[in-house]
Design brief:
heterodimer; A: about 110 residues; mainly beta; six-stranded mixed beta sheet; four-stranded antiparallel beta sheet; about 0% helix; B: about 120 residues
Chain lengths: ~110, ~120
C-alpha cells in the first residue's frame, strides 16, 4: 500500500497568515492526489484534485502543487473559515490512502 | 443538486451486523462509483472500498475484506454497506462519497457504535 505522510500534524496560525501543508507519498503517485478540508462534526470537502486543480467553489487563496512523491497545499491570507482539519488522499492504485491529517487552529 | 443522504446512527452489540444506506439524488446514480470511508473517533480517514452501481463490480481495501460488503439498489438509487462481526474497532463514522476526480460529494456520515 502507498503510505501518505502528512506534515505538520497541527499548526497554530493567525488570520491573514500564509500556510503550507505537505504530503509525501511512499512512491510516485503521478499527481493523483486530492486535498480535503474537514470542519468539526462535518463531512470532508474536496479542495483540490489532480494535485493542482481547485474544486468548484473553492476560493483562489487555496492552491495545490507538487509532483512525484511530494505535494503541498498552500493557503494564502488565512481566513477564519479556513480553520479545521486537512487531509491528502492519493488515487494511484488501491487502496486509496489518506494522510494522517493536519489540524489548523487559530493562534 | 447532488445529495447523498445516509441512514441514521446505529448502536449494535459486539458480534452483530449492521447495514447502512446512502441514497443518492441529483445525478445519474449508475454513472459514478460510490465509495465508503471510515473515520474513527475524529482521527484520519480510511478508504473501505467502492462499487460500480451500473455493473455491481466492487473493489475493497484488503483491510476491510470480510468485514464490509458493498451493494446497490439501482431502482432506488441507494448504496449500502454491511459490516459484520462487529467489534469495538468498528465504532466509527462511516461516509459514502461519490467518485469523480477526488471525492467531490459526501454523505453526512453515519455513526456506528459497538457496545455491549
Amino acid at each position: 500500500d502507498i503510505q501518505m505522510t502528512q506534515s505538520p500534524a497541527s499548526l497554530s496560525v493567525s488570520v491573514g497568515e500564509t500556510v503550507t501543508i505537505t504530503c509525501r507519498a511512499s512512491e510516485n503517485i503521478y499527481s493523483n492526489l486530492a486535498w480535503y478540508q474537514q470542519k468539526q462534526g462535518k463531512s470532508p470537502q474536496l479542495l483540490v484534485y489532480a494535485a493542482t486543480n481547485l474544486a468548484d467553489g473553492v476560493p483562489s487563496r487555496f492552491s495545490g502543487s507538487g509532483s512525484g512523491t511530494q505535494y503541498s497545499l498552500k493557503i494564502n491570507s488565512l481566513q477564519s473559515e479556513d480553520f479545521g482539519s486537512y487531509y491528502c488522499q492519493h488515487f494511484w492504485g488501491t487502496p486509496w490512502t489518506f494522510g494522517g491529517g493536519t489540524k489548523l487552529e487559530i493562534k | 443538486e447532488v445529495q447523498l443522504q445516509q441512514s441514521g446512527p446505529e448502536l449494535e452489540k459486539p458480534g452483530a451486523s449492521v447495514k447502512i444506506s446512502c441514497k443518492a439524488s441529483g445525478y445519474s446514480f449508475t454513472g459514478y462509483n460510490m465509495n465508503w470511508v471510515k473515520q474513527s473517533n475524529g482521527k484520519s480517514l480510511e478508504w473501505i472500498g467502492n462499487i460500480d452501481p451500473y455493473y455491481g463490480g466492487t473493489s475493497y481495501n484488503q483491510k476491510f475484506k470480510g468485514k464490509a460488503t458493498l451493494t446497490v439498489d439501482k431502482s432506488s438509487s441507494t448504496a449500502y454497506m454491511q459490516l459484520k462481526s462487529l467489534t469495538s474497532e468498528d465504532s466509527a463514522v462511516y461516509y459514502c462519497a461519490r467518485e469523480t476526480t477526488g471525492f467531490a460529494y459526501w454523505g453526512q456520515g453515519t455513526l456506528v457504535t459497538v457496545s455491549a
